[in-house]
Amino acid sequence: MRMGLYARVAGLPVEVDSVSLERRAIETGSGFTRATTTVVLRGGGEEGVGEDVVYDPAAHDDPPVPVPAVSGSWASFDDLSRRLGELELFREAPPYPVYRSYRRWAYESAALDLALRQAGRSLADALGREARPLRFVASPRSVSVSDWLELYPQLRFKLDPVSAWDVAQVELLVGTGAVDVLDLKGAYRGTRVDQPPDPRLYRLVAERFPAAWIEDPNLDDDPECAAILEPHRDRITWDAVLHSVEDVERLPFPPRTINVKPSRFGSVSELFAVYEYCEANGIGMYGGGQFELGPGRGQIQYLASLFHPDGSNDVAPGGYNEPEPRAGLEESPLDPRPTPVGFRRA
């Protein structure tokens, strides 16, 4: 009988001697400070790392003190994971429930990295999979697609359409032939990236980009928008609403593909269950990032290289998030370069 993915790592013992937190921050050039926290678990002469991608900078200025009580000898990674699921990782209830998943993922990924290092194994080895060259797309903060293409002619893109897009702008983008995914941000509520349903925008996206994936439309609040996208259901994909296998099953129709952001699922067990569900049901996958500043970026690249290396993975190296294009960045396909042991990219 084939062993399930999670069972391949669940039994790894983990020794945690100490926990420390390291804050990172940059000014994005688009009006907000991006801060994240690297979680470092040490034990048995090794250390494991993960990254908390909660978007509120204040959440990284004031992390829980003391840090979660996870020090000790854990008979299995699964025992530690279950404990993390019980702990309160915020001083106060976060404004968005998904923030709990983001923070739990930081500790889970650090614990998995530590467990693998203490066992002298890599994630690829433990899962019986090969890390393959990784195809990625870029999602620039501004629509400077032509500037990026001057430096990287083969680069592909994931863009966030907004109602301010005009026909001329759309035609320039269509002319590049380089757009893989258009994220309508229709599933967001009360965030700085909300994009209400807009029939004009939905029609532009559907008709002028006939080969692109259409991510996270709002099909509930505007019947006209839903009718516009009805003939394009096979190109509709989802991201923000997915936090579990059950969420995938509850989608309005079976998707051809979905955006799998590891941090949205919170636990390694749920993430691996989603991977298995998609593979068993013929659902394609591509990866998504959370503007990671530390080790989390390499970890999601590693996972993408194991499970969906040929997808439109929005996991480009961090340099592609900078406001202005520059030469010398790693190009797609990306060498996954997994470390010989642990769960991280070299």
Describe the 3D structure.
By secondary structure, the protein is α/β, with parallel strands linked by helices. It has 2 domains: 7-126, Enolase-like, domain 1; 145-321, TIM Barrel, CATH 3.20.20. Helices cover 33% and strands 16% of the residues. The protein contains 13 helices and 11 strands. The chain has a 4-stranded parallel β-sheet with strand order 6-7-8-9, with helices on one face. α8 packs parallel to α9 (223-229). The chain is globular. The model has no long low-confidence stretch (mean pLDDT 94).
Task: Provide the descriptors you would attach to this structure in a database record.
16% strand; 13 helices; 4-stranded parallel sheet; TIM Barrel; Enolase-like, domain 1; 2 domains; globular; 3-stranded antiparallel sheet; alpha/beta; 346 residues
- Give me the strand/helix succession: HEEEEHEHHHHEHEHEHEHEHHEH
Q: How large is the radius of gyration?
A: 20 Å
Shape: globular
Helix content: 25-40%
Low-confidence stretches: none
Tell me the name of the CATH homologous superfamily of the largest domain: Enolase-like C-terminal domain
CATH architecture of the largest domain: Alpha-Beta Barrel
Fold-level CATH name of the largest domain? TIM Barrel
Q: Tell me the count of domains.
A: 2
Short description:
This protein has 346 residues and is α/β, with parallel strands linked by helices. Helices cover 33% and strands 16% of the residues.
